[in-house]
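Sample intake sheet
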Amino acid sequence: MSYIAPSDSAPAFQASVISLFPDMFPGPLGHSLAGRALQDNIWSLDVITPRSFAVGKHNDVDDPPFGGGHGMVMRPDVMSAALNSLEETPGPRIYLSPRGKKLTQSMVRDFSQEPGLVMVCGRYEGLDQRAIDKHNLLEVSVGDYILSGGELAALVLLDSIVRLLPGVMGKEIGHYDESFENGLLEYPHYTQPRYFDGIEPPDVLLSGHHANIKAWRMAQSEAITRARRPDLWARYTDNNKAADTQDDVVSDASGQKDQSTEKKLS
């Protein structure tokens, strides 16, 4: 099942998904920014089902786990055949899994620079490890919780990537101030009406003083991050300390060079 807009040129980003439930796609990605970008051929989506590569008279795609245990495991031969059929799709191969590396905005930015990617949506107890190893699948998790399958996780990953593709959001500066882009959570927003239930927005936002507004927003982002996400705050402060140390090293090196030049001239 392909979602490719008619065009003389290839899309900038090609996404392929392997799912037992292909009708779940494009889902919400067929609407709003992602949907328009799909129609405009900024990205394309190809969804295949491993059932097309099922084996045996019962068209099996899974079997009980060796060693016993609950549930079923997706067969490596079936999934390997599905992956082989997508060899022409460029980019990394990703397996959406709760044991994977937790998705971050930094990872999303890296993925958005790729020409495409292939996503494997797990079901049941997951995918046979041999298929993961053979195809060097990168395991990615969208959070510390369990979903019924990888389809919703794939939609989350795709949405986060597509919105960063050139031409999707308009001005690229539009997403810089968002949560996680600069290591902080986003500051509060206010709009009309000016008076709502007797409450006005902060005076600084109505001042027209852009430097003060920028400083207020930064202070709010820092306060919110410090209170709600101490892990992000610790990382942010550590990065700032490292940047300050680097600046000091560069400054000292520049000063020593200047002194050396003065001695030569004298």
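Comment: The longest strand covers residues 93-102. The two ends are 76 Å apart (CA to CA).
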